[in-house]
Amino acid sequence: ISESPQTNEFKGTTEEAPVKESPHTSEFKGAALVSPISKSMLERLSKFEVEDAENVASYEWTHLVRLLRLIILIRIFHLLHQKRQLEKLMRRLVSENKRRYTRDGFDLDLTYITERIIAMSFPSSGRQSFYRNPIEEVVRFLDKKHRNHYRVYNLCSERAYDPKHFHNRVGRIMIDDHNVPTLHEMVAFTKEVNEWMAQDLENIVAIHCKGGKNRYVGYFAHVKHLYNWNLPPRRILFIKRLIIYSIRGDVCDLKVQVVMEKKVVFSSTSLGNCLILHDIETDKVLIDVFDGPPLYDDVKVQFFSL
């Protein structure tokens, strides 16, 4: 069978025609090969970007926290400074016109009566230290100025503190607030103070009551001068008349009470035991006492107006 030239053409074409790759096919193949690498790089880049963003956010947050801490610390120091200033103001208001010791870094309701006698207000702790002498500051003052040479005397019956603050060098006399000590207490106190100060020329005493007025210092000095540490012999006395000077207003409700040995031994509330007269011209009140009790030692006369 003779082959047709056309058939041969087709056959040659079929056998010899090379398969041509389309440029698009090559591009897709290259893209298919490059795609996994690009994806990995993108993931890494994305990861780095996230980490950088997190680091930046963390740095900004840390910076903000530090700034807030600094602001809080500044505020705390400011409040502490204001608190100290307010404490100083309150202490000065409470001490009124009394002298204060304001040298060498101290600001205390404290003064030297003599070189060896100190009068001060009550050494306090807790809330009361806000407007009275803080006990730690009093200890620091005495330890710095008179180390091992001081003795503290508490003349307050209502309040006390641990004597260990002052190395157990604390004496105590029980005197009620707004009252005077008994003559026996005054003599015993002045004698004890004299013995302590005679032991060493550097020894001093620091005396305080409750309110810090320390009126007792003058009383004790007077007792020492007057009695030389010995009480006079007992004498029994009777009150016949009491006179109140420079009084104004109505005295019709005036009451009189006499206390001895912490007991009321006379009261004007009893009928017929006294007569109260007001001399308006001289501003005096005359109180005549009838059948008063015998009195001796320490006697306290109290006046009340309702």
From TrEMBL:
Any one GO molecular-function label of the UniProt entry: hydrolase activity
Pfam families, A to Z: PTEN_C2
Phosphatase tensin-type domain mapped to chain residues: 99-215
Gene3D superfamilies recorded: 2.60.40.1110, Protein tyrosine phosphatase superfamily
Stored PROSITE patterns: C2_TENSIN (PS51182), PPASE_TENSIN (PS51181)
Sequence ranges assigned to domain C2 tensin-type in this UniProt record: 234-306
Protein name: Uncharacterized protein
Source organism (scientific name): Gorilla gorilla gorilla
Organism ancestry: Eukaryota, Metazoa, Chordata, Craniata, Vertebrata
